[in-house]
Design brief:
402 residues; Enolase-like, domain 1; seven-stranded mixed β-sheet; 32% strand; globular
């Protein structure tokens, strides 16, 4: 088995890992970099998988982050289709599934997460797509012909987006989820029920306050039986029930983990030569006054780049409020901070449940902002969160003009 040495090793070929290359190169123009990714595809942008690819706004060839010339020009070696199976922080080595041993000076764990799986009879059927990767998109896209029946399990970000995408592509879509309404974790009840009504008006069948009890393959179909004794016969089943942060490498190496790999303000783990960034990372947000883990595009870019710079010696504290976005038919939104529907909310609507700003408040302080069909105001939202000023919620009307 081969032994190799690199100054920088990045485990994870997603957005955080690739952004780290850019951060490293800002501070170190020549140090050798190895990027390890368990997918065989060139690194790509994940949000279009449930958004623009389905609506004809992007083609697959447009979602790749860089061409091969970028990696070659930045002295980056790609190890795609390779899994890192063991890490030894004392020896500063990574062992791959193929048995190769890789030595590093600085290591970034940008391992993201793995889709949660259904722990029910039939949950491991090959026909169930736990939607996460470009291969998943290609497989579902090939099956998604007009008139076919699809069941989407999960009513959160991915479930709501993929259900809308399939509906627009003329599939007969049903959704099954345990919450009262779509995206309940972040939408206040009025907004969430209004969005759900739009789904049903478009012909999507909603089985809310319910959950799958079993799945069975029969005569080329998938039969979904629910806890409330509903039975749905489908051509395809897509599960979008969240991800589990990939922390095994860190945990088995003795690093601190707690709903992600725990890092300090420099994105260092409990080993100062090992960093983490992206969906797998538990970090402290000074602006929000809490530890958190964020599974969104903007966070991966910002953390990956910051971690790369610090790996190369910048030693700059990372205090950034990430934002995220989604499109659900004609309703699009951007949001920043702690968007939790259990917080007190105050809505400043121009058009109710369509165009306006929703503020999320705790202890008379704005913790999060959702911009509903309001664009180019994310910096204003971040500014309000950073100030951490005590406010009367009624004072928020007009706080972000639109």
């Amino acid at each position: 088995m081969a032994e190799q040495k690199y100054k920088y090793v990045i485990v994870g070929s997603g957005l955080a890992g690739v952004s780290a290359i850019e951060g490293i190169r800002e501070a170190d123009k020549g140090g050798s970099i190895l990027l390890i990714g368990n997918e065989k595809n060139m690194p790509y942008d994940r949000p279009p998988l449930s958004k623009k690819l389905w609506f004809g706004k992007k083609k697959v060839e447009e979602i790749f982050l860089h061409d091969k010339a970028f990696y070659a020009g930045n002295n980056v070696e790609l190890a795609l289709g390779v899994t890192a199976v063991e890490m030894n922080s004392t020896k500063k080595t990574i062992v791959t599934g193929g048995g190769d041993t890789i030595h590093y000076s600085k290591l970034l764990l940008a391992t993201g997460g793995m889709p949660r799986r259904l722990g029910i009879p039939g949950g491991n059927l090959n026909e169930i797509c736990y939607y996460r990767t470009l291969d998943d998109y290609n497989n579902i896209r090939a099956m998604a012909s007009s008139g076919k029946k699809a069941v989407v399990i999960g009513g959160g970000f991915i479930g709501s987006e993929i259900a809308a995408a399939l509906n627009v592509n003329n599939l007969d879509v049903s959704m099954v989820f345990p919450e009262d309404y779509l995206v309940q974790r972040i939408f206040p009840v009025g907004l969430g029920t209004a969005i759900q009504k739009r789904y049903t008006e478009r012909g999507i069948t909603i089985f809310n306050r319910d959950a799958p009890a079993s799945l069975e393959k029969k005569s080329g179909k998938i039969i979904v039986r629910t806890q409330k004794s509903n039975e749905i016969i489908a051509d395809m089943v897509i599960a979008g029930i969240g991800i589990v942060p990939a922390v095994d490498l860190a945990k088995n190496a003795g690093l601190s983990t707690d709903n992600g790999v725990v890092v300090n303000e420099y994105l260092q783990t409990t080993d100062p030569d090992v960093y983490a960034a992206g969906d797998n990372t538990n970090f402290f947000s000074a602006a929000l006054g809490q530890r958190m883990r964020v599974e969104h595009w903007d966070n991966s870019i910002a953390q990956g780049k910051a971690a790369g710079k610090n790996m190369a010696g910048s030693n700059t504290a990372h205090d950034y409020i990430p934002y995220f976005f989604s499109d659900l038919f004609e309703f699009g939104y951007e949001a920043a901070g702690n968007i939790n529907s259990e917080l007190e909310t105050f809505a400043d609507w121009k058009k109710e449940h369509d165009t306006g700003v929703v503020y999320y408040v705790k202890d008379s302080t704005v913790k999060g902002v959702m911009l509903c069909n309001v664009w180019d105001k994310i910096e204003a939202a971040r500014d309000i969160i950073r100030k951490r000023q005590k406010i009367n919620p009624q004072e928020l009307k007009g706080a972000i003009p639109f």
